[in-house]
Amino acid sequence: MYKLIKKCGKTRRGEFTTPHGTVQTPVFMNVGTLGAIKGAVSSMDLKEIGCQVELSNTYHLHLRPGDKVIKQMGGLHKFMNWDRPILTDSGGFQVFSLAKIRKIKEEGVYFNSHIDGRKIFMGPEESMQIQSNIASTIAMAFDECISNPSPREYVENSVARTTRWLERCKIEMDRLNSLPDTINKKQMLFGINQGGTYDDIRIEHAKTIAKMNLDGYAIGGLAVGETHEEMYRIIDAVVPYLPEDKPIYLMGVGLPSNILEAVDRGVDFFDCVLPARNGRHGHVFTKEGKINLMNAKFELDGRPIDEGCQCPACKYYSRAYIRHLFKAKEMLAMRLCVLHNLYFYNNLMREIRDAIDGDYFPEFKEKKLTEWAGRA
Fold this sequence. Notes:
tRNA-guanosine(34) queuine transglycosylase activity, three-stranded antiparallel sheet, eight-stranded parallel β-barrel, 2 domains, TGT, alpha/beta, TIM Barrel
């Protein structure tokens, strides 16, 4: 259940109550695709760096270790020792981005595994069944994620099929939640708005899915080829047509500046692999913008990554030491930088919530964007 605490223009400050705890929004979900954050970050680390929601992927967990294995182990919460909310992506995006060969039909998608090439079928019912076995807090509806730009006729047909798939997801989720052997009988379902970069298709789809009384609504199919300006335009167009009493999730976005702009437009939930991926390559976020620790100028730099930061890396280690670890190919380098970047994102969201609570979000946003732009 979503409770809207405060609004400042379009900006929303809320609380989302789930079977695994209450989430303060706006929130950034830390991406652990296979039930772990890449970079040797544990579920206990996630608590230390302020993670509220962990995100895992249906497609990947279905392939390894297998959703039935996870169910036998008591569900993903128990398997990975995490007692806070988990959101599982439906697998739709991965089917369309990773599968070597795929065929889309009304019943679902036939594709080949990117790991061993074996043939797999996934449709709305299969995606819900896998997510029910995983027993995540929030399941995402199975949809088709198209690239931008795509021909209008294709987008219209795709969105119509995504709507039909969503209806099937809802029916199957209700059925699964009623079964005696289901681990999480209160699993929640978020629908996904699609429509490429066509405002009118997006708006009509938002109106349609808003009537379905889902637990939350996502804006999908962005950050896949369009400009930032196009993305912001789509968010502006769609948000007014989604229910105000449900959380809004912008999928796969993105940079800290993207998050600030989207929060300003009414978005509550975010996720992106970017902070962890950047960290694994020595690219770290600071209050003055992003820096590359591999640069020679940091060889004798005794300062922490970001002065004033309270993450485990900044409290105990210097830029020079972490740079040395990267050059020596020590795994600790990746771990420290991923911890820092995720802490940076989680802390940014806390600062955003404080700014909304304190009625100074517009000033906070402009200050941050100016600081980051100056560094860039």
